[in-house]
Write a structure and sequence with these properties.
MetI-like, globular, about 0% strand, 16 helices, cell membrane
Length: about 270
């Protein structure tokens, strides 16, 4: 028992140190967002800036239409998160509870797509968007990736843990697959939904390369690309960049706070089996 307690304390200490290493850069960025550029670029100086200023936050909108790009990113990330969760849950239900020829083969093909680096698919997808005439439109941002192999795998594992007797009992009562999926499977998959919601929203919120390639109209651009406006030819407005980035982190934190209780349980249910 003493050895277990000792290892528990050691593990807790290591996790605390790792948490500090992870959090300190964000804390420094937030504090520096209240400092003028002359203070930020100083080699020596304290953690807290002297003097403090709100001009970095007040001047964000002057660099570019921050609010519009923020709403664009929020719309694209939220839309893709909802759709990916639904398609992943639906396909997870098909692969885990339905019996048909070639099921394992098709599922293996879906999993194999996870092994293909995303960078390899950029050129083919770009050519597809060009042929469809979707360049510089929201379709180019919304359509790709609406079916996610990782999400399908996660839901297939979690839904597979739901007893078949529940599904069979619903069918005996006259429920079809659509009713079973929406009224039984989805409510029992809250943990997986929460885990995938956090991952998907984060991936889409921080995506830079794809919107940079697809969108040229500044009004349709996403916030991740718009932040480069703070980097000019002769220098970088670090204060404004830190202020805009601090605001850009808020939606990710909100999503995590909302789904944090089911997050660890969802990851465990998808990987434990």
């Amino acid at each position: 028992m003493r050895a277990r307690k000792m290892w528990a304390w050691i593990l807790t200490g290591m996790l605390f140190i790792l948490a500090l290493i992870t959090i300190i850069p964000f804390v420094w960025m937030f504090i520096s967002s209240f400092a003028p550029n002359s203070e930020i670029v100083k080699v020596s100086g304290g953690i807290f800036p002297k003097p403090t200023t709100l001009s970095n936050y007040q001047g964000i909108q002057e660099k570019f239409d921050f609010l519009r790009l923020f709403l664009n990113s929020l719309f694209v990330s939220s839309f893709k998160t909802v759709v990916i969760i639904y398609t992943s849950a639906a396909l997870g239900y098909v692969f885990s509870k339905m019996r048909f020829r070639g099921r394992n083969l098709i599922f293996g093909i879906v999993l194999s797509t996870m092994m293909v680096p995303w960078a390899v698919t950029i050129i083919p997808q770009y050519e597809m968007m060009t042929k469809f005439g979707w360049l510089d439109t929201y379709k180019a941002l919304l359509a790709p990736g609406l079916v996610n192999a990782f999400g399908v795998f996660l839901f297939r594992q979690s839904i597979g843990g739901i007893p078949d007797e529940i599904v069979e009992a619903a069918k005996l009562d006259g429920a079809g697959d659509a009713v079973i999926f929406h009224r039984i499977i989805l409510p029992m998959s809250r943990n997986s939904i929460s885990a995938l919601a956090i991952f998907t929203f984060l991936w889409n919120w921080e995506d830079y390369l794809w919107p940079f390639l697809m969108i040229t109209d500044e009004k349709k651009q996403l916030l991740s690309v718009g932040l480069k406006m703070f980097s000019g030819r002769y220098g970088t407005d670090y204060g404004g960049l830190f202020a805009a980035t601090s605001i850009a982190i808020i939606p990710v934190l909100v999503v995590y706070v909302v789904f944090q209780k089911q997050f660890i349980a969802g990851v465990a249910s998808g990987s434990g089996k």
